[in-house]
Amino acid sequence: MQFSAIIVAVACATGAVANLHFKAWCVSGCLSDADPKNVGATKSACNAYKNRHTCDQWWDVCPGCVIETKDGNNKASQCHSSSQHIGGDEWQAYCIKFGATDGAAN
């Protein structure tokens, strides 16, 4: 009985960290290749996530979150965390708060 409780606890703990990302961006409209990124919301969400200190979980802080661009193209802006601090659900909430329709990450 104790063994099965341990397995359940480990499975739950593993699921809690499975949705962490290195890069994230906000989108408006659909997730197509036709430039759906919402750069303004991405920058605001990244700054908010960087300043976030909500608890003691890995995704509750992102001291290294920075905006990066690809080849100087601001339309390719994304929030980057070299330590994989970006939580998908938290990121999505920030994107929506700052006017995007959704958040995306990888």
UniProtKB/TrEMBL annotation:
It comes from the Eukaryota. Residues 1-18 form the signal peptide. Keywords: Signal. This is Secreted protein. It comes from Colletotrichum plurivorum.
